[in-house]
Structure formats: C-alpha cells, structure tokens
Amino acid sequence: MNIGFIGLGNMGAPMAANLAKAGHAVIGFDLAAPTPEGVAMAATAAEAARRAEVVITMLPNGEILEAVAAEIIPAMPPGAVLCDCSTVDVESARRVAAEAEAAGLGAIDAPVSGGVGGAGAGTLTFMAGGSEAAFARVTPLFEVMGQKAVHCGAAGAGQSAKICNNMILGVTMIATCEAFALADKLGLDRRKMYDVVSTSSGSSWTMNSYCPAPGVGPKSPADNGYVPGFASELMLKDLRLAQAAAEMVDADTPMGRAAARLYETFVEEEGGRGRDFSAMLTRFEARHRT
Ligand code: NAD
Known about the structure:
It is built from twelve helices and nine strands. It has 290 residues and is an alpha/beta fold.
C-alpha cells in the first residue's frame, strides 16, 4: 500500500519503520525528526499525502492534528483514508473526521496503547472510531503495527475508549500508591501486601503487572529507578483529555478530576516530569496527612 506517515517521533518512527519493513511504500514527513529506516521523506505534509491510500498521523495534540489535517485533506486522493493514531481530544478527532468525510475521504481515529516498546515490537493495541469501511481499509496496517485492533464505534469512539481506560489507570495507580504508603506506615511488609492484594478484591493491573513498589511483583519501571515506561506527563495529558471530555458531555468524574490534579502537582511542582507514572509512590512515601 502507498502510505503517508506524518509525525515520526518516539512512537511514529518505529511504527513507520515496521510498515516499511512489511513491504509497504511509506512516505514520511516530520518538522524535526530523523528519517526512520525504509521510509522516504517528503518536503511537506501535503506531499507525503498526495499519492497515499492511507495517511497515518502520530502527532502531539489535537491542535497540531487539526492544522496538519487542514493541509493534507485537500491533497489526498479521493477515497483515501486519514487514520490518526495520536492521543487527542474527542472534539478534535470528530472535527477532523467530519472534514475528511466532507472531502470524500475515509477517517479513523485510532489511538494506541503499548507505548514506545509496543511501537517498536509491533505489538500495539489500537482502539478505533469511524466507519466499518474505513476501519477495514486500515486493518491490514494495524496488523503490522500491533497485535489487536478494536473497532469501538463512530468517529471519536477510539479516543473515548482510550481516555476512559487511562482515567481508570491513573486513578488506580494513585490508589495503589497511597495504599502502599499507608501500609508502610502501618508497618506492613510490602511483599505481604502484594501477596494479599494481588490475589484479593483490591487487585488491578497497576498492582499485579506494574507494581509501583520496587522489588515487589513482576519487573516494572519501579525496579529501574522509575525510568519510563509511561511518563507522568503523558498520564497527565490523558487525564486532562478525560476531564475535557467529561466537561463536554457533563459527566461527573470526581476521581478522574482528583487524579488529574495529583498528576499536575506531581509533574509541575514535585519533580515527576520524566519519571514513570508509578513514581507517584515516592510522593506519598514522602508526605504526611496534611
Ligand atoms: P513525539 O513528541 O516523540 O512525536 C511527535 C512528532 O510530531 C515529533 O517528531 C514532532 O516533530 C512531530 N510534529 C509536531 N508537529 C508537527 C507538524 N505540524 N507536522 C509534522 N510533524 C510534526 O511524541 P510521541 O511520544 O511519538 O507521541 C505521539 C502521540 O502518541 C501523542 O499524541 C501521544 O500522546 C501518543 N502516545 C504516546 C505514547 C508514548 O508512550 N510515547 C503512548 C501512547 C500514545
């Protein structure tokens, strides 16, 4: 397939390289990033899109996505599909899809989970929103870049699924961290705490698979000095997107709001930037009740 790939950063570069390795003709564009292996570079985003059957975007946020979409939609051949894999706000995703469809193109929002490791290994999970037909066109590419793609519904449904999942993840990580800090102060051994909780009703992915306490449970960023993994500022981004979506549809999300505030303080005032989001445990270890 002829593929345009715009946004070749930490995630986009390995995804584009995997598509090229699988035999697709990939023409890339980025304002700054170096050329991934096997990818031909274009001088502009529009040029990368001009002959593409599918254009994939992997960009920092909704504002940039909308600017890039305005440039490439008029350049894309009729019937081509614009597939945005960035994590952006639901409103931007829906607006871009409407603009693409109005121009006779297919549109899919397909944010990913799996991080930089998953992008390199081709094991990402895609959660997609858009028409059946557009989803079917892009599915063979999802199979190269990932191991699972769920068609969640209409335009914006992929972003909706992603931010709901990550809101649960952020809230659960905080709950796990504060419980470890409480257990410490109660004199409970962390391994005993893990043994009980990981097999009891308090179990969760954050406890069982990504334990924030070093030396406890399977290997996680906690065992590597909290090098990400999934950086706290990326968790903050997703929690803010969840709050923006909750505001848009008037949903009451008190735990999501509290999690967004805690990660904001952690990232902006407490040295959390650049550390894995499980380093939240160190925040609670260092604090008292007030
Ligand atoms: P990144 O900052 O490494 O890459 C973004 C790239 O977009 C950069 O290379 C930048 O130069 C390029 N760019 C910015 N504006 C552009 C423009 N107008 N035209 C062309 N290129 C432009 O970010 P990343 O870590 O690759 O993340 C990309 C997206 O994936 C984000 O939306 C992020 O939330 C999401 N995501 C990241 C992770 C992760 O672990 N890094 C995990 C899941 C989802």
